Amino acid sequence: MNTRNETLPDSKSNTTLAQTLACFASELRDEDVPQAVRERARYLMLDAVGIAFASTQYEFAHRTLSAVSEFGGGDIDVIGFGTRLALRDAVLMNGLLVHGLDYDDTHTRGVIHATASCFPTALGVAAAGGLSGRELVTAYVIGMEVATRLGSVAKGGFHQTGFHPTGLIGTFACALIAGRLRGLNERQLSMAQGIALSVASGSLEFLQDGAWTKRMHPGWAGAAGITAAALARNGFIGPQAAYEGRFGLFNSHLGSLAEQCDYSLASEGLGETWEVSAVAVKPLPACHFTHACADAAVSLRREHGIEAGDIASVRALIPSEVIKTVCEPVANKQKPQNSYDAQFSIPYAVASGLVRGRFGLGELEPDALADPVALEVAGKVKYEIDPESAFPKYYSGEVIVTLTDGRELRHREHINRGASDRPLSADDIVSKYLENARMAVSEARAMQVLESILALDDMQANELSRGLGGRA
């Protein structure tokens, strides 16, 4: 039985998935989005802004700003820099700031950092168009619902074939955000997705050497999505079967893994079940796949007072689907050469938890990465496939430590902290935001921005944009 064909969208009516999503993006009204969902959306935006502020303190942000500034100025604010760029350049920059520390939210089933592309796009396009904060929030929700569902269709397959869904899938969501805010009709919104198919990108090759390219994926998705929407608005013709076609998104990027796709997940509960509510806010500044094992290691140190010299060997149980991302190549992961290497390393995350009892931004500084004690323990960490993994619903993990006296200690985090069934509270998100924002701005300004974002439905988008850019 060909189960894949059975899950193609609306096969009897010949309605493409792009048309279904275009209809959703075109017809959703502000009042159709429940207040609880709108509130959750604002908290996700708040989390993103705090990370963006913190990112302004790092070299990658300044080098990127120098590069995009070569294209000239514009009217759209760059978060935290007091600088204005042309729309697409500002969106590229703001997406990089949100995603640059790998501290931004994740939709677990879709395996995608959707806010990092959807928020900068909605903010930039709404501000450029003089639109309301309410319209901004609705467009952001539309993008989030689309991105998370499209990511879910692949069932984690993109990571197995070397593609980063945050950049790849984010382009389609951003095309719909930009199209919605610029008044595209349903046919134009459908066409924008077809055009997005030729400009969507995102390679995982950065995993080999800790390169910076992943940081730019969400912002590039936003710039590409805005471009696709503008082309569609002006009558440019793109392919109709952007997703399910012979060379559509899933067939062209997944190879044989396209057979496992469930296209029904892209529209299941659309407009009724809100995936925004299932987005996980990160408690740790690292790839979400490392969190359960990092927390397990911290718990073991806290519960048993483990010292580095007591450790003979360590086994980390992780989902098979994430091995390529956070466990291989083993030599790189056991001795990360830079912060990005460390953020995608199970051995380093576990070693940091066991040796220091924490894994925060401080553990990504050069002195921490060169710590011989932590590196010695990281060299003792081996991975195994977790037979009880709940991936992709949860990013489960377990750490088993064998001590030099022969004792074996273990701790399991079956539901990773921050997941939809173990979420961070609103107060937790505010605390995280303030901790990050204070790295770059005063307490007074941090509080002013917080109040603006939580009241976004009642203000103009360009007011928020000016406040984030430092010209409120």
UniProtKB/TrEMBL annotation:
Matching InterPro entries: MmgE/PrpD_sf (IPR036148), MmgE/PrpD_sf_1 (IPR042183), MmgE/PrpD_sf_2 (IPR042188), MmgE_PrpD (IPR005656), MmgE_PrpD_C (IPR045337), MmgE_PrpD_N (IPR045336)
Name of protein: MmgE/PrpD family protein
An MF annotation (GO) of this entry: lyase activity
Assigned protein family: Belongs to the PrpD family.
Organism per entry: Azoarcus taiwanensis
Superkingdom field: Bacteria
Stretches assigned to the MmgE/PrpD C-terminal domain: 285-452
Domain MmgE/PrpD N-terminal stretches: 19-255
